[in-house]
Specification:
The protein has 456 residues and is α/β, with parallel strands linked by helices. It starts with a strand and ends in a 13-residue tail after the last strand. The structure holds uridine-diphosphate-N-acetylglucosamine (UD1) and calcium ion.
Protein backbone atom coordinates (compact mmCIF):
# COMPACT_ATOMS: atom_id res chain seq x y z
CA UNK A 1 0.00 0.00 0.00
CA UNK A 2 1.26 3.47 -0.91
CA UNK A 3 2.47 5.22 2.16
CA UNK A 4 0.53 7.97 3.88
CA UNK A 5 2.03 11.36 4.59
CA UNK A 6 0.69 14.51 6.16
CA UNK A 7 1.14 18.14 5.22
CA UNK A 8 0.37 20.99 7.57
CA UNK A 9 -0.19 24.40 6.01
CA UNK A 10 1.35 26.92 8.35
CA UNK A 11 3.10 29.57 6.30
CA UNK A 12 0.48 32.31 6.62
CA UNK A 13 0.89 35.42 8.68
CA UNK A 14 -2.51 35.31 10.29
CA UNK A 15 -3.36 38.91 9.49
CA UNK A 16 -6.55 38.78 11.54
CA UNK A 17 -4.54 38.04 14.70
CA UNK A 18 -2.98 41.52 14.34
CA UNK A 19 0.26 40.18 15.69
CA UNK A 20 3.80 39.85 14.41
CA UNK A 21 4.00 36.32 15.73
CA UNK A 22 3.16 33.63 13.15
CA UNK A 23 -0.43 32.63 13.83
CA UNK A 24 0.25 28.96 14.49
CA UNK A 25 2.68 29.93 17.28
CA UNK A 26 -0.12 31.55 19.25
CA UNK A 27 -0.86 29.26 22.15
CA UNK A 28 -3.79 27.37 23.61
CA UNK A 29 -3.19 26.39 27.22
CA UNK A 30 0.49 27.15 26.86
CA UNK A 31 1.18 25.12 23.70
CA UNK A 32 1.35 26.56 20.17
CA UNK A 33 -1.56 25.83 17.82
CA UNK A 34 0.80 23.85 15.64
CA UNK A 35 1.85 21.68 18.59
CA UNK A 36 -1.78 20.61 18.98
CA UNK A 37 -2.00 19.69 15.29
CA UNK A 38 1.18 17.62 15.52
CA UNK A 39 -0.28 15.85 18.52
CA UNK A 40 -3.47 15.01 16.65
CA UNK A 41 -1.35 13.33 13.96
CA UNK A 42 0.50 11.13 16.46
CA UNK A 43 -0.25 7.49 15.88
CA UNK A 44 -1.82 8.22 12.48
CA UNK A 45 1.22 9.29 10.49
CA UNK A 46 4.82 8.77 11.63
CA UNK A 47 6.70 11.99 12.44
CA UNK A 48 9.09 11.29 9.57
CA UNK A 49 6.15 11.51 7.13
CA UNK A 50 4.84 14.84 8.42
CA UNK A 51 5.74 17.95 6.41
CA UNK A 52 5.00 21.53 7.40
CA UNK A 53 4.78 24.47 5.04
CA UNK A 54 6.35 27.48 6.75
CA UNK A 55 6.99 30.98 5.48
CA UNK A 56 6.02 33.95 7.59
CA UNK A 57 8.31 33.95 10.63
CA UNK A 58 10.07 30.77 9.47
CA UNK A 59 12.94 31.49 11.85
CA UNK A 60 10.61 31.64 14.84
CA UNK A 61 8.95 28.45 13.64
CA UNK A 62 12.29 26.63 13.51
CA UNK A 63 13.14 27.84 16.98
CA UNK A 64 9.78 26.68 18.33
CA UNK A 65 9.99 23.20 16.79
CA UNK A 66 13.67 22.32 16.38
CA UNK A 67 12.92 18.60 16.08
CA UNK A 68 10.51 19.17 13.21
CA UNK A 69 12.70 21.22 10.90
CA UNK A 70 13.66 18.26 8.64
CA UNK A 71 10.01 18.25 7.53
CA UNK A 72 9.79 22.00 6.98
CA UNK A 73 9.16 23.25 3.46
CA UNK A 74 9.60 26.98 2.96
CA UNK A 75 7.01 28.89 0.96
CA UNK A 76 8.85 32.16 0.44
CA UNK A 77 5.81 34.14 -0.64
CA UNK A 78 2.43 33.17 0.71
CA UNK A 79 0.41 33.05 -2.47
CA UNK A 80 -2.36 30.90 -1.05
CA UNK A 81 -3.15 27.45 0.30
CA UNK A 82 -3.02 25.92 -3.20
CA UNK A 83 0.40 27.45 -3.73
CA UNK A 84 1.50 26.04 -0.37
CA UNK A 85 0.55 22.57 -1.60
CA UNK A 86 2.36 23.16 -4.91
CA UNK A 87 5.46 24.25 -2.99
CA UNK A 88 5.54 21.10 -0.89
CA UNK A 89 4.63 18.73 -3.71
CA UNK A 90 8.15 17.85 -4.95
CA UNK A 91 9.24 16.88 -1.43
CA UNK A 92 6.14 14.72 -0.92
CA UNK A 93 6.48 13.17 -4.34
CA UNK A 94 10.12 12.24 -3.95
CA UNK A 95 9.39 10.76 -0.52
CA UNK A 96 6.95 8.39 -2.23
CA UNK A 97 3.80 9.64 -0.50
CA UNK A 98 0.73 8.04 -2.07
CA UNK A 99 -2.03 9.28 0.18
CA UNK A 100 -1.69 12.76 1.60
CA UNK A 101 -3.53 14.17 4.56
CA UNK A 102 -3.54 17.98 4.45
CA UNK A 103 -4.41 19.94 7.58
CA UNK A 104 -4.59 23.70 8.01
CA UNK A 105 -2.19 24.58 10.80
CA UNK A 106 -4.77 26.88 12.34
CA UNK A 107 -7.13 24.07 13.30
CA UNK A 108 -5.65 23.28 16.71
CA UNK A 109 -8.50 21.29 18.19
CA UNK A 110 -8.88 18.82 15.34
CA UNK A 111 -9.47 15.48 17.06
CA UNK A 112 -7.30 12.56 16.06
CA UNK A 113 -10.52 10.55 15.62
CA UNK A 114 -11.78 12.98 12.97
CA UNK A 115 -8.54 12.64 10.99
CA UNK A 116 -8.68 8.86 11.37
CA UNK A 117 -12.30 8.82 10.17
CA UNK A 118 -11.41 10.86 7.11
CA UNK A 119 -8.51 8.53 6.28
CA UNK A 120 -10.71 5.46 6.79
CA UNK A 121 -13.36 6.85 4.49
CA UNK A 122 -10.67 7.69 1.97
CA UNK A 123 -9.15 4.20 2.07
CA UNK A 124 -12.56 2.58 1.82
CA UNK A 125 -13.84 4.61 -1.13
CA UNK A 126 -10.62 5.68 -2.87
CA UNK A 127 -11.75 9.05 -4.24
CA UNK A 128 -9.21 11.43 -5.78
CA UNK A 129 -9.91 13.87 -2.96
CA UNK A 130 -11.93 13.86 0.25
CA UNK A 131 -12.39 16.64 2.75
CA UNK A 132 -14.10 17.11 6.08
CA UNK A 133 -17.03 19.46 6.31
CA UNK A 134 -18.77 21.11 9.25
CA UNK A 135 -22.41 22.14 9.55
CA UNK A 136 -22.46 25.76 10.56
CA UNK A 137 -25.65 27.82 10.45
CA UNK A 138 -23.64 30.97 9.80
CA UNK A 139 -20.74 30.08 7.49
CA UNK A 140 -19.03 33.43 8.14
CA UNK A 141 -15.64 33.66 6.42
CA UNK A 142 -15.29 29.91 5.87
CA UNK A 143 -15.27 28.27 2.44
CA UNK A 144 -18.73 27.07 1.51
CA UNK A 145 -19.46 23.60 0.20
CA UNK A 146 -21.60 23.55 -2.90
CA UNK A 147 -23.41 20.28 -3.69
CA UNK A 148 -25.40 19.34 -6.75
CA UNK A 149 -29.04 18.24 -6.84
CA UNK A 150 -27.97 14.68 -5.92
CA UNK A 151 -25.99 15.81 -2.93
CA UNK A 152 -22.63 15.24 -4.60
CA UNK A 153 -19.92 17.81 -3.98
CA UNK A 154 -19.49 20.26 -6.84
CA UNK A 155 -17.12 22.87 -5.42
CA UNK A 156 -15.84 24.77 -2.43
CA UNK A 157 -16.41 28.47 -2.87
CA UNK A 158 -14.62 30.94 -0.61
CA UNK A 159 -16.78 33.44 1.25
CA UNK A 160 -15.38 36.39 -0.68
CA UNK A 161 -16.19 34.73 -3.99
CA UNK A 162 -19.61 33.42 -3.08
CA UNK A 163 -22.42 34.75 -5.24
CA UNK A 164 -25.86 33.31 -4.49
CA UNK A 165 -26.93 34.14 -8.03
CA UNK A 166 -24.22 31.80 -9.34
CA UNK A 167 -23.71 29.34 -6.50
CA UNK A 168 -27.25 29.05 -5.21
CA UNK A 169 -28.71 29.92 -1.82
CA UNK A 170 -26.26 29.68 1.04
CA UNK A 171 -26.18 26.24 2.65
CA UNK A 172 -24.87 25.61 6.12
CA UNK A 173 -21.95 23.35 5.21
CA UNK A 174 -18.40 24.66 5.31
CA UNK A 175 -14.94 23.34 4.49
CA UNK A 176 -12.86 22.48 7.56
CA UNK A 177 -9.55 22.80 5.69
CA UNK A 178 -8.73 19.12 6.26
CA UNK A 179 -8.25 16.98 3.16
CA UNK A 180 -7.12 13.51 2.12
CA UNK A 181 -5.92 13.17 -1.41
CA UNK A 182 -4.50 10.69 -3.84
CA UNK A 183 -1.18 12.16 -5.01
CA UNK A 184 -1.32 10.38 -8.38
CA UNK A 185 -4.82 11.60 -9.18
CA UNK A 186 -4.40 15.16 -7.91
CA UNK A 187 -0.89 15.79 -9.28
CA UNK A 188 -2.07 16.57 -12.81
CA UNK A 189 -4.65 19.07 -11.48
CA UNK A 190 -2.17 21.11 -9.45
CA UNK A 191 -0.72 23.21 -12.29
CA UNK A 192 -4.27 24.12 -13.27
CA UNK A 193 -4.94 26.10 -10.10
CA UNK A 194 -5.45 29.77 -10.93
CA UNK A 195 -5.65 32.92 -8.86
CA UNK A 196 -8.49 34.72 -10.62
CA UNK A 197 -10.54 35.22 -7.48
CA UNK A 198 -11.37 37.91 -4.93
CA UNK A 199 -8.13 37.36 -2.98
CA UNK A 200 -5.80 36.87 -5.96
CA UNK A 201 -4.56 33.68 -4.26
CA UNK A 202 -4.11 30.10 -5.41
CA UNK A 203 -6.72 28.16 -3.44
CA UNK A 204 -6.32 24.51 -2.49
CA UNK A 205 -10.11 24.44 -2.41
CA UNK A 206 -10.30 24.90 -6.18
CA UNK A 207 -8.99 21.35 -6.52
CA UNK A 208 -12.51 20.19 -5.70
CA UNK A 209 -14.15 21.76 -8.76
CA UNK A 210 -11.16 20.83 -10.93
CA UNK A 211 -11.44 17.18 -9.89
CA UNK A 212 -15.21 17.13 -10.37
CA UNK A 213 -14.81 18.66 -13.85
CA UNK A 214 -12.20 16.03 -14.67
CA UNK A 215 -14.71 13.34 -13.72
CA UNK A 216 -12.74 12.26 -10.67
CA UNK A 217 -14.56 11.13 -7.53
CA UNK A 218 -14.61 13.71 -4.72
CA UNK A 219 -16.03 13.18 -1.25
CA UNK A 220 -17.25 15.77 1.22
CA UNK A 221 -17.21 13.86 4.49
CA UNK A 222 -19.61 15.36 6.97
CA UNK A 223 -18.02 16.00 10.34
CA UNK A 224 -21.28 17.13 11.93
CA UNK A 225 -21.40 20.35 13.91
CA UNK A 226 -18.15 19.71 15.78
CA UNK A 227 -16.70 23.13 16.73
CA UNK A 228 -13.30 21.46 17.17
CA UNK A 229 -13.02 21.31 13.39
CA UNK A 230 -13.19 25.07 12.99
CA UNK A 231 -10.17 27.10 12.01
CA UNK A 232 -8.92 29.84 14.29
CA UNK A 233 -8.30 33.22 12.67
CA UNK A 234 -8.74 35.89 15.34
CA UNK A 235 -8.04 36.42 19.04
CA UNK A 236 -11.72 35.86 19.80
CA UNK A 237 -11.75 32.53 17.94
CA UNK A 238 -8.54 31.50 19.66
CA UNK A 239 -10.03 32.30 23.06
CA UNK A 240 -13.13 30.26 22.22
CA UNK A 241 -11.03 27.31 21.10
CA UNK A 242 -8.88 27.55 24.21
CA UNK A 243 -11.96 27.50 26.40
CA UNK A 244 -13.32 24.42 24.60
CA UNK A 245 -10.02 22.65 25.14
CA UNK A 246 -9.82 23.73 28.76
CA UNK A 247 -13.29 22.44 29.53
CA UNK A 248 -12.65 19.13 27.78
CA UNK A 249 -9.39 18.55 29.65
CA UNK A 250 -11.03 19.33 33.00
CA UNK A 251 -13.99 17.08 32.17
CA UNK A 252 -11.55 14.32 31.31
CA UNK A 253 -9.79 14.75 34.66
CA UNK A 254 -13.07 14.62 36.58
CA UNK A 255 -14.04 11.46 34.69
CA UNK A 256 -10.66 9.92 35.49
CA UNK A 257 -11.05 10.48 39.22
CA UNK A 258 -9.26 13.76 39.81
CA UNK A 259 -11.17 16.00 42.20
CA UNK A 260 -11.35 19.42 40.57
CA UNK A 261 -13.09 22.02 42.72
CA UNK A 262 -14.46 25.04 40.86
CA UNK A 263 -13.89 23.19 37.58
CA UNK A 264 -15.00 26.15 35.49
CA UNK A 265 -11.93 28.10 36.60
CA UNK A 266 -9.28 25.38 36.51
CA UNK A 267 -6.77 25.59 33.67
CA UNK A 268 -4.77 22.43 33.06
CA UNK A 269 -2.46 22.18 30.07
CA UNK A 270 -2.51 19.21 27.71
CA UNK A 271 0.86 17.85 28.85
CA UNK A 272 0.12 17.91 32.56
CA UNK A 273 -0.43 14.55 34.22
CA UNK A 274 -2.76 14.55 37.21
CA UNK A 275 -3.09 11.16 38.81
CA UNK A 276 -6.51 9.93 39.85
CA UNK A 277 -6.94 10.66 43.53
CA UNK A 278 -5.25 14.04 43.52
CA UNK A 279 -7.20 17.18 44.22
CA UNK A 280 -6.94 20.67 42.79
CA UNK A 281 -9.03 23.77 43.15
CA UNK A 282 -9.81 26.54 40.72
CA UNK A 283 -8.94 29.14 39.94
CA UNK A 284 -5.53 27.72 39.06
CA UNK A 285 -3.19 27.23 36.14
CA UNK A 286 -1.23 24.04 35.74
CA UNK A 287 1.03 24.04 32.72
CA UNK A 288 3.80 22.18 30.94
CA UNK A 289 4.97 18.73 31.97
CA UNK A 290 3.63 19.06 35.50
CA UNK A 291 2.86 15.89 37.37
CA UNK A 292 0.62 15.78 40.43
CA UNK A 293 0.60 12.50 42.31
CA UNK A 294 -2.34 10.71 43.84
CA UNK A 295 -3.17 12.04 47.27
CA UNK A 296 -1.62 15.45 46.62
CA UNK A 297 -3.76 18.51 47.04
CA UNK A 298 -3.28 21.89 45.40
CA UNK A 299 -5.27 24.83 46.74
CA UNK A 300 -6.75 27.63 44.68
CA UNK A 301 -4.89 30.43 42.92
CA UNK A 302 -1.74 28.44 42.26
CA UNK A 303 0.29 28.78 39.06
CA UNK A 304 2.38 25.71 38.31
CA UNK A 305 4.59 24.80 35.37
CA UNK A 306 6.86 21.81 34.73
CA UNK A 307 6.73 20.78 38.37
CA UNK A 308 6.43 17.54 40.26
CA UNK A 309 4.04 17.45 43.22
CA UNK A 310 4.54 14.26 45.24
CA UNK A 311 2.00 11.99 46.89
CA UNK A 312 0.33 13.44 49.94
CA UNK A 313 1.83 16.89 49.38
CA UNK A 314 -0.27 19.88 50.31
CA UNK A 315 0.17 23.06 48.29
CA UNK A 316 -1.81 25.83 49.91
CA UNK A 317 -3.38 28.67 47.92
CA UNK A 318 -1.43 31.34 46.05
CA UNK A 319 1.78 29.48 45.27
CA UNK A 320 3.91 29.98 42.16
CA UNK A 321 5.84 26.84 41.29
CA UNK A 322 8.01 26.36 38.23
CA UNK A 323 10.50 23.63 37.37
CA UNK A 324 10.47 22.48 40.99
CA UNK A 325 9.94 19.19 42.74
CA UNK A 326 7.77 18.96 45.85
CA UNK A 327 8.36 15.67 47.62
CA UNK A 328 5.88 13.38 49.34
CA UNK A 329 3.92 14.86 52.24
CA UNK A 330 5.50 18.30 51.94
CA UNK A 331 3.52 21.38 52.85
CA UNK A 332 4.00 24.44 50.69
CA UNK A 333 2.58 27.95 51.02
CA UNK A 334 0.39 29.86 51.11
CA UNK A 335 2.24 32.47 49.01
CA UNK A 336 5.40 30.46 48.36
CA UNK A 337 7.50 30.71 45.23
CA UNK A 338 9.44 27.69 44.06
CA UNK A 339 11.66 28.49 41.11
CA UNK A 340 13.55 26.09 38.83
CA UNK A 341 15.47 23.34 40.60
CA UNK A 342 13.87 23.96 43.95
CA UNK A 343 13.48 20.57 45.61
CA UNK A 344 11.69 19.81 48.84
CA UNK A 345 12.15 16.30 50.14
CA UNK A 346 9.77 14.12 52.15
CA UNK A 347 7.76 16.11 54.68
CA UNK A 348 9.65 19.39 54.28
CA UNK A 349 7.73 22.62 54.81
CA UNK A 350 7.87 25.92 53.00
CA UNK A 351 5.75 28.71 54.38
CA UNK A 352 4.53 32.10 53.29
CA UNK A 353 6.74 34.50 51.37
CA UNK A 354 9.53 31.99 50.97
CA UNK A 355 11.38 31.86 47.65
CA UNK A 356 13.55 28.94 46.64
CA UNK A 357 15.76 28.66 43.56
CA UNK A 358 18.20 25.82 42.81
CA UNK A 359 17.87 24.87 46.43
CA UNK A 360 17.07 21.66 48.26
CA UNK A 361 15.29 21.30 51.56
CA UNK A 362 16.12 17.90 53.05
CA UNK A 363 13.52 15.61 54.59
CA UNK A 364 11.53 17.34 57.33
CA UNK A 365 13.43 20.63 56.98
CA UNK A 366 11.43 23.82 57.39
CA UNK A 367 11.57 27.35 56.06
CA UNK A 368 8.34 28.74 57.36
CA UNK A 369 8.40 32.47 56.75
CA UNK A 370 9.94 35.26 54.67
CA UNK A 371 13.06 33.55 53.38
CA UNK A 372 15.19 33.35 50.25
CA UNK A 373 17.05 30.13 49.61
CA UNK A 374 19.11 30.30 46.41
CA UNK A 375 21.88 27.85 45.46
CA UNK A 376 21.46 26.15 48.81
CA UNK A 377 21.49 22.66 50.28
CA UNK A 378 19.61 22.29 53.54
CA UNK A 379 20.03 19.08 55.52
CA UNK A 380 17.31 16.92 56.98
CA UNK A 381 15.35 18.41 59.86
CA UNK A 382 17.05 21.81 59.70
CA UNK A 383 15.02 24.84 60.68
CA UNK A 384 15.41 28.07 58.77
CA UNK A 385 14.14 31.01 60.82
CA UNK A 386 11.99 33.81 59.52
CA UNK A 387 13.79 36.33 57.36
CA UNK A 388 16.80 34.15 56.59
CA UNK A 389 18.48 35.10 53.33
CA UNK A 390 21.16 33.23 51.42
CA UNK A 391 23.32 35.94 49.88
CA UNK A 392 24.20 33.82 46.86
CA UNK A 393 25.24 36.51 44.41
CA UNK A 394 28.27 38.76 44.77
CA UNK A 395 27.48 40.78 41.68
CA UNK A 396 29.52 38.48 39.45
CA UNK A 397 28.87 34.86 40.30
CA UNK A 398 26.55 32.68 42.29
CA UNK A 399 27.83 30.77 45.31
CA UNK A 400 26.47 27.91 47.34
CA UNK A 401 25.25 27.74 50.91
CA UNK A 402 25.28 24.38 52.67
CA UNK A 403 23.33 23.94 55.90
CA UNK A 404 23.82 20.72 57.82
CA UNK A 405 21.29 18.30 59.19
CA UNK A 406 19.38 19.49 62.22
CA UNK A 407 20.91 22.98 62.06
CA UNK A 408 18.91 25.90 63.39
CA UNK A 409 19.22 29.27 61.68
CA UNK A 410 17.90 32.11 63.80
CA UNK A 411 15.63 34.72 62.36
CA UNK A 412 16.85 37.48 60.10
CA UNK A 413 20.17 35.81 59.37
CA UNK A 414 22.19 36.65 56.26
CA UNK A 415 24.28 33.69 55.05
CA UNK A 416 26.96 35.12 52.77
CA UNK A 417 27.89 32.39 50.30
CA UNK A 418 30.00 30.41 49.79
CA UNK A 419 29.45 29.26 53.34
CA UNK A 420 28.80 26.04 55.22
CA UNK A 421 26.81 25.68 58.46
CA UNK A 422 27.60 22.43 60.24
CA UNK A 423 25.24 19.69 61.34
CA UNK A 424 23.23 20.63 64.44
CA UNK A 425 24.84 24.09 64.49
CA UNK A 426 22.92 27.05 65.85
CA UNK A 427 23.13 30.52 64.34
CA UNK A 428 21.91 33.39 66.51
CA UNK A 429 19.18 35.65 65.19
CA UNK A 430 20.28 38.68 63.22
CA UNK A 431 23.71 37.30 62.34
CA UNK A 432 25.59 38.03 59.15
CA UNK A 433 27.51 34.81 58.61
CA UNK A 434 30.53 35.10 56.35
CA UNK A 435 32.62 32.15 57.57
CA UNK A 436 31.86 28.45 57.96
CA UNK A 437 30.30 27.27 61.21
CA UNK A 438 31.37 23.87 62.56
CA UNK A 439 29.17 20.96 63.51
CA UNK A 440 27.42 21.40 66.89
CA UNK A 441 28.68 25.00 67.23
CA UNK A 442 26.82 28.18 68.11
CA UNK A 443 27.64 31.15 65.88
CA UNK A 444 26.64 34.64 66.87
CA UNK A 445 27.40 37.74 64.89
CA UNK A 446 25.79 40.79 66.35
CA UNK A 447 26.87 43.73 68.44
CA UNK A 448 26.21 43.55 72.15
CA UNK A 449 23.06 45.33 73.26
CA UNK A 450 23.68 48.42 75.32
CA UNK A 451 21.29 50.11 77.67
CA UNK A 452 21.69 53.80 78.44
CA UNK A 453 19.48 56.19 80.41
CA UNK A 454 17.05 57.84 78.08
CA UNK A 455 17.76 61.53 77.42
CA UNK A 456 14.84 63.83 78.17
C1 LIG B 1 -9.24 28.14 4.49
C2 LIG B 1 -10.01 27.56 3.32
C3 LIG B 1 -11.50 27.61 3.62
C4 LIG B 1 -11.79 26.86 4.90
C5 LIG B 1 -10.91 27.36 6.05
C6 LIG B 1 -11.08 26.43 7.22
C7 LIG B 1 -8.68 28.13 1.35
C8 LIG B 1 -8.57 28.99 0.15
N1 LIG B 1 -9.73 28.34 2.12
O1 LIG B 1 -9.63 29.50 4.59
O2 LIG B 1 -12.22 27.00 2.56
O3 LIG B 1 -13.17 27.00 5.23
O4 LIG B 1 -9.54 27.39 5.67
O5 LIG B 1 -10.41 26.90 8.34
O6 LIG B 1 -7.85 27.27 1.56
N2 LIG B 1 -1.33 29.09 4.45
C9 LIG B 1 -0.11 28.78 3.90
N3 LIG B 1 0.31 29.48 2.81
C10 LIG B 1 -0.44 30.42 2.20
C11 LIG B 1 -1.70 30.72 2.75
C12 LIG B 1 -2.13 30.03 3.87
O7 LIG B 1 0.62 27.93 4.41
O8 LIG B 1 0.02 30.99 1.19
C13 LIG B 1 -1.78 28.38 5.65
C14 LIG B 1 -2.10 29.30 6.81
O9 LIG B 1 -0.95 29.48 7.63
C15 LIG B 1 -3.22 28.57 7.54
C16 LIG B 1 -3.85 27.72 6.46
O10 LIG B 1 -2.98 27.69 5.37
O11 LIG B 1 -2.74 27.75 8.56
C17 LIG B 1 -5.21 28.28 6.02
O12 LIG B 1 -5.02 29.60 5.55
P1 LIG B 1 -6.03 30.75 5.92
O13 LIG B 1 -5.57 32.01 5.27
O14 LIG B 1 -6.26 30.79 7.37
O15 LIG B 1 -7.33 30.25 5.15
P2 LIG B 1 -8.84 30.59 5.50
O16 LIG B 1 -9.16 31.91 4.94
O17 LIG B 1 -9.11 30.36 6.92
CA1 LIG C 1 -7.90 29.93 8.65
Amino acid sequence: MAHTGALILAAGKGTRMRSERPKVLHTLLGEPMLWHVYRALEGLVPDSAVWTVVGHGAQQMRAAFPGRTPGFVVQERQLGTGHALQTAWPALDSAGVGTLLVVNGDTPLVPRAALAALLDEFQARRPALAFLTVDLPDPGAFGRVVRDAHGAVAAIVEAKDYDPAVHGPLGGEINSGIYALDMAAVGPLLPRLGNANASGEFYITDLVALAVQAGLPVLGVRGGADPQLLGVNSPAELARAEELLRASIVDGLLDAGVMVHQPGTAVVGPRAVLEPGCEISGPCEIHGATRIAAGASVGSNCWIRDAEIGPGALVRPFCHIEGASVGPDCQIGPFARLRPQAVTEQGARVGNFVEMKKARLGPGAKASHLTYLGDAQVGAGANIGAGTITCNYDGRSKHETVIGEGAFIGSNTALVAPVRIGDRALVGAGSVITRDVGDDMLALERSRQRELPRRK
